[in-house]
Amino acid sequence: MDIVPPLDPGSPRVRFGAEMRRLREAEQLSQAAVAARLGCTQTQISRLEGATRTPSRSDAERLDQLFKPPNASSFTRIYQSIVSQSRSPIWFRDWAEEIEPTALVLRSWDPLLVPGLLQTEAYARHIFSQEPHTNPEEIEERVKNRMDRQGVLERQDSFSLLFLIDAGVLRRQVGDAEVMRGQLGHLLDAAQRPNIFLQIVDPKCLVGLLGAFMIAELPHGQPDTVHVDSSTEGHVTMDPESVAATWKRYETIRLWAYPEHMSLKMIDDARREWT
Description:
Layout: H1 12-26, H2 31-38, H3 42-49, H4 57-67, H5 75-85, H6 90-99, E1 105-110, H7 121-129, H8 136-149, E2 160-166, H9 177-190, E3 196-201, E4 213-217, E5 225-228, E6 235-237, H10 240-254, H11 260-273
Parallel strand pairs: 1-2, 2-3
Antiparallel strand pairs: 1-4, 4-5, 5-6
Helix pairs in contact: 1-5, 2-3, 4-5, 7-8, 9-11
């Protein structure tokens, strides 16, 4: 089940989809025909037109080449409006709206913080409040986006999530002791779900210090896709070499993970320490 926010009829993303449908129908082209020319799937075209998929810059540029609309209504210009209105990175909106809602299995590694999908509202708010030049309105919007994203955890299909978390995260203070107790208690509650598996990784695992990442296994024979964090922004790719390298790193980190029953005890012990 896809989790998507209510659509704003006046938003640039809706305008992008409406203009795309208008020009496609004017050219008497089917969605499949446009998909073939753009090198994507008919489902992706349908989601773009329905404004349930955020277009990429390459989507906009290829549509401009295909339909050659007037400059004032070019897809590239509309795309720029989408980017300017978004306070979250455009590349991550694609991951959150396209990949997570359809993945069969999602594997996550984080050496520094509790993964976003498992963060409490208080924990997330403190993280966002530490970023420079961020006002209260932006903080609350980002917190809301993060909580909305967690709706993917409510999927009713066969969706599995496997989280590896560095042991240092349990004692890295984010907010006050109450925030940490609530966050670690939330991890214990999440681990009771039948489709969520959580393991703590020994801090001696130095290969894990290269950074956080997620690996998504997708349905219908689609290639695995990875999201890799960097110091400035994340990167989403299905490039075979990048995916293979990320898989190797994941398997190496997993060798340093404690069994789940030991991991949950470690979380509970750390929770009790936050007094």
